[in-house]
Amino acid sequence: MTAKATILVVDDDPSILRLLTMRLESAGYAVQSAESGERALALASVKRPDAVITDLKMGGMDGLALHDAVQKIAPGLPVIILTAHGTIPDAVIATQRGVFGFVPKPFDGKALLDQVERALRLSAAGGAADEEWRRDIISVSAAMGEVLRQAKLAAQSDSPILIRGATGSGKELVARAIHAASSRASGPFVVINCAAIPESLLESELFGTGPASESGAAEDDAEPGAFREAENGTLFLDEVDALPLALQPNLLRALQEHAARPSGNGGAPASVRLISGTTRNMGECVAAGEFREDLYYRLNVVGLVVPALAERREDIVPLANDFLRAAAVRHGKEARAFAPEALELLVSAPWPGNVPELENVVERAVLLATTAVIPAAVAQSALAAAPATLTPLDEAKRGFERDYLVRLLKITGGNVSRAARMAHRNRTEFYKLLDRHGLEPGMFKGERA
After folding, report:
1. CATH number of the CATH domain containing 243
2. 180 and 283 in one domain?
3. Prior bond to 249 cis, omega within 30?
4. Are 400 and 377 found together in one domain?
């Protein structure tokens, strides 16, 4: 072992509990102990262990009941059951319920340690020294810890992953961590935001252009596209729900054929791990006809949900302290800590903007601070200046589209043909866009930007 994984041991016999603890600690593990299933469940809820060893027969909550309860808060957490009643029916029941291992009492020390090692290896647990892959993610919360455990397990295969979470919750950081934990870590990590690139350019950004493409690009001018740029690495498609319906078959084909296919060309093999991110419920997108069902299932082989900052408030203090240190260095300020009352304000704030909002508030507090310890009054002032909410994505996109159309019509003096050409849309599509925003070309006659 190169790091201390934490094992939760549970037995209502104090002597067995001490023996288990001594055996595991001598093997280099950190140990939490509990004399009842109820106490063990409380401990696991506060700080998630890497594995559980529990007696089967206990007063109150027995080992199987504890296993079932633990799986609700930490799905896949390996549970090894010890029992003096080592009958075949007990073993069958345990394994059918998903128990990782079944060891009879009196237990053989080496056999038990072998089980623990195997459980940790298969569950991707490794302890603090094995966290280089997730070094950019500052978190102590059990909720985020469970997401990262699942992420590390998923990193061991090349299956597509769909990460859902609010804006600013850390979807890209989780995607980067998965890449770092995978066999593709030495390859490129390429990010494409599907909502930030105009639809007319998105196809070439993803799949590239070739000499036979509609663009008429010469061979020397051909662009590889994100799939080829991510060769032997990972491609992260953020806001994948914004992918136009017209392009969704292309992405589906790329996943099915493991090939990037520039317009007008045959597919070229592309060994790429695809991770997608979204703020939306993709099932609802499918039901609304905005997203292909077959593509959704292809993308969602493994689904991860990143909790919002308000759902993991125990992360606010370590994040705030890290942001404070960075901001103090960046601005040459003496601020080095928050007063306890200031931290209480930060922990109790709503944080609709998630981690970026917290970072902005901390930076504002550092700039306002005149002392080494930032008091509650300064933290309150920084919080008061923060926007109450972020603009929803759909509203922001509508606002951008409306402003874009207004600017085009100002530039062209209301000439729809010219404006449509500049937007790379035909007149019919352009008129539909104008109707969507209640804009009339006559409003801009004679105006020039």
Report:
1. 3.40.50.300
2. yes
3. no
4. no
pLDDT at residue number 74: 78
**Which residue, of 364, 384, 404, is where some domain finishes?**
384
pLDDT at 448: 53
CA distance 156 to 133: 13
Note whether 283 and 171 are same-domain residues. yes
Boundaries of domain holding 320: 310-384
Write out the E strands in 358-413.
373-374
> Residue 210 phi/psi, 5° resolution?
-130, 170
Put simply, whether the predicted model's pTM sits higher than 0.70 gets the answer no
Q: Report the C-alpha gap between 63 and 328 in whole angstroms.
A: 50
Predicted pLDDT of residue 217: 47
Residue 212 has a pLDDT of 40
Residue 176's Cβ-count burial label (10 Å; 0-12, 13-18, 19+) is buried
Q: Is 390 helix (H, G, I), strand (E, B) or coil?
A: coil
Instruction: Work out the widest C-alpha separation in the chain, in whole angstroms.
Output: 93
78 in the same domain as 170: no
Task: Identify the pLDDT of residue 274.
Answer: 96
87 vs 65: CA distance, rounded Å: 18
Decide: 217 and 223 in contact? Cβ < 8 Å: yes
* Residue 1 pLDDT: 38
In 3D space, the residue among 61, 137, 130, 62 whose CA is nearest the CA of residue 94 turns out to be: 62
Q: Are 295 and 278 in contact (CB under 8 A)?
A: no
| 131 in any annotated domain | no
Report the distance separating Cα 314 and Cα 343, nearest Å. 11
List residues bridging with 190 in a β-sheet. Answer: 235
pLDDT of residue 242: 94
Residues 83-114 as b/e (b if ≥16 CB within 10 A, e otherwise) read beeeeeebbeebeeeebbbbbbeebeeeebbe
Q: Collapsing DSSP states into helix, strand and coil, what is residue 313? A: helix
Which ranges of the chain have pLDDT less than 50? 1-2, 128-129, 212-218, 220, 264, 266, 389, 449
Q: Is the CB of residue 280 less than 8 Å from the CB of residue 239?
A: no
Asked whether residue 186 falls in the same domain as residue 296, the answer is yes
Residue with tokens 């919080």: 383
Other beta carbons less than 10 A from residue 227's beta carbon: 27
Q: How many domains does the chain have?
A: 4
